[in-house]
Amino acid sequence: MKIFNDPIHGQIELHPLLVKIIDTPQFQRLRHLKQLGSKFLVYPGATHTRFEHSIGVAYLAGCLLKSLRDNQPELNITKQDALCVQIAGLCHDLGHGPFSHLFDGMFIPEVRPNDKWEHEDASVKMFHYMRSKNGLDKVMKEYDLNLDDDIPFTEELIKGNRTSRLLKLKIFFFLQRPPNKSFLYEIVANKLNGIDVDKWDYLARDCHYLGIPNSFDHQRLLKSARVCEVDGEKQICFRDKVADNIHGMFHTRYTLHRQALQHKIGFIIDVKIKDALVLADRKLVPGCKISDAIHDMSEYTKLTDHIYDQILLDSNPELVEAQDILNDIINRQLPKFVGEARLNEDLLEEKLLEQWQQMVDKYNTFYNQDLEAEDFDIHVLDMGFGEVGNEPIDNVHFYSKSNLNTAFKIEKYQKKKRKPEEMEKMEEELEEMEKEETGKMEEEVEEMEKEETGKMEEELEEMEKEETGKMEEEVEEMKKEETDKMEEEVKEMEKRETEEMKKMEKEEKEKIEEEEMEKMEEEVEEMEKEEMWKMEEEVEEMEEMEKEEMEKIEEEEMKEM
Prior knowledge:
The chain has a domain at 2-338 and 376-419: Hypothetical protein af1432. Helices cover 60% and strands 4% of the residues. The chain is built from 18 helices and 5 strands. The longest helix is centred in the C-terminal third of the chain and has 140 residues, at 421-560. The radius of gyration is 48 Å and the shape is elongated.
């Protein structure tokens, strides 16, 4: 046995085979599937996962079986029976997809409308895949499980195959356990009256993490449970004195759904996430769709709540629209909740869908809008205290202290007597609320119309002010642009003129220099000529003087001779 420390049930012990299952990748995947899907975006504490819930269900299944076996050894509950029921409790949620019921209740029906797929079927497929991938069959044989009988029995328990019995004909189609053990099918997923260990754990766990008061004590029911014969079959019954506690269970379930699981903002977020998943279905993974994974357990094992971040951080440009939706959720830019009403009518959804277009057309005419019926989502929620019938306790059988083996139903006069004062008070308040709701809605509509009219007038005035201010800003901007443009042109002209002046000055300077050079050259030439002439004259004079000198010398020489 291995001990787990659970925040709800305290120190709990689990069979070694269950621990082997827990240590597989397929079960560890449940750590990344939040129990309440996207509700953590509304309730900050709702971050618990299906991992700890599944362990809790397996533990409570073992506790209930031990109580029945200790109190009624004649039931002949074998260790194989107990182990199969606990395995079913542990594995009943293996088939859940990202964001839990959003995936199988909203996403899959939209992208695969012809696929009659439920997460219970996926749980059985994942159970098969987990066994084959991790060699669990060998371990199961070591603990004396008969694979031919006990595996199909476990799968029946996971799927809650109570519906496989024809209730009216009283004929069993359970292949793996005889009719005298039909009560085993009521422990994990009770399709008869909804009282099962799955509900016991999620009521306690969800209320704990959401911060919602829990008026239900599952330990009281667990210890008073007893198997009796009802219409020829064995059913789990409860001591008559715990009827109030059963009412408390269904009351807690109603409160949980009303305040959290069906929260209006939570529903809006679910719709937006579903829209993002639909847009990303064909684009996130090249060559395949997200929804294809429901038929491939290898791929389904990789599919968790992390898909939100996968879509958000992917660089594929085709995912931009889906990423915009998810970013809107992060930034709390959500569609507005218009209103709600508690109505008591048959075929309510069909009537609303027929009349909604007329209501939208009337609104458009009155407010001069251009809305379509498709711009709104209508969510019809059928809320009640039980899952079967108008009064859930109608399907519960009890026994008395004086006669432990005779089952009976609580009669109407006994029900009323046994209902807690809080329940009666709440029902009266609900009836009063239903009566007041219609008048309240009319007042709200009138108030909304007044507010809308005043709002439209304010918006028009604001728009006019904005337009006037915008025009003034545009005129000032244009003036500024023109002034800037003119200043730039003047600067450009001044620049061009400066350049022209510099060019002219340069040319004039070059011209003057050229003329000066020519003049200097002429003067040099003139001077050279004059010098030459002067030199020539001097040479001639010198030659003349030399000639005279020579003549003089010659004369003297002649004289001397």
